[in-house]
Amino acid sequence: MSVLLIEAFYGGSHKQLMDLLNGEIEGCVLYSLPAKKWHWRARTAALHFMEAVPPSDSYRVLFTSSVLNLAELIALRPDLGKLKKVLYFHENQLVYPVRKNQDRDFQYGYNQILSCLVADLVVFNSAFNMESFLTSISKFLKMIPDHRPKNLERLIRPKCRVIHFPITFPDVSRFLPEHKKISMKCLGHQKEVTVHSQNETAKVAPTVFGQAEEHMTQPWREPNNPMTPPEESHSVDDGQVISQPSSSSFSTESPRPLHIVWPHRWEHDKDPETFFEIMMKLKDQGLPFCLSVLGETFTDVPEIFSEARISLGSAVLHWGFLPNKDEYFQALCTADVVISTAKHEFFGVAMLEAVHCGCYPLCPKALAYPEIFPAEYLYSTPEQLLKKLQNFCKRPGIVRRHRFQGETAPYSWASLSGEFRSLLTAEPGKDP
Q1: pTM of the model
Q2: Which of 38, 89, 185, 269 could make a disulfide contact with 344, Cβ separation 3.0–4.6 Å?
Q3: How much is the pLDDT for 403?
């Protein structure tokens, strides 16, 4: 073992990345803490790993996320300071949205700045993440009442680079509805993306869909009431509702209503208030749609979720986190449109996964989204988002015939594995 992986918040995209590196790159050993109590992980994880990580002469590289205070760990464990130290930013605390500016805890951003100063390489998952962090350092440090440090951006920037988060796009062909399968056959000249895993090499279908006729999809609603869903079977467990349509309720007279999916964490920085406000406007206008609200929940769930679940009623098809990946991708494959209303997004794994499953993306024209998605998928205001959805609800065939005008392959492990392997290789000629 030559690569020491340390993750202080082993959940979500943090877990995905560490599991991927640990499984794909030889010589890795992983030490982690569960994804709970984020604030306490940021404050105290260094002390835990000081004790948890045994000394070893075989370590050559230390790779960790920016949740860990790397400066503290290196001070507590000088032997680890001799390694090539790589710090990966999934997000940064200098611009992470808070409800009120006075709620921002100076310590978390300060810890990240200190970690950058002791790291040998600082890697960000997007250019937006990197630039928003580096250009905010000076302003952030003005919170210090006096004796403020200077020129830290100049010290840190030369260490920085962007390597997008690597996604393992699965083969979802078995989950695709008929119109998406037909689209893929029509676009058979597109190249497949090869994804290498520890045990096998899989061919992943290209993420471009279109050319299918709207009438080829099975209708979803009863023709006499556009807001009435089919007969459903419900299972309710700890607030999670999974609904499956009954085959007997399909009609051949009209297309099924637009299926909207929102696959994000149930937290305020994803702005669920704006999303549900728009969904209620669609419902009040009598426009036909159905909805899947996925994503993880944590300790404090915004009240809007329970309110919206009641208000949206029968429009809801899926409600709650789907821990089983097959079920999750199956839900994405049945959807037409994936929406983000985020106030915070430094990359956006869930949006790219949904696009891979044939969803039409609608994202804010801000944050990391313009870096990843072509302009036609971006909106500037909630009013623009509402107008697009009104049109799609009236004419769902628009999105079902659409061919995605961007690429997902550059964000795959197949494309990015070489850069990560280079990161986790000690420079030749250096004595760690």
Answers
A1: 0.81
A2: 269
A3: 87
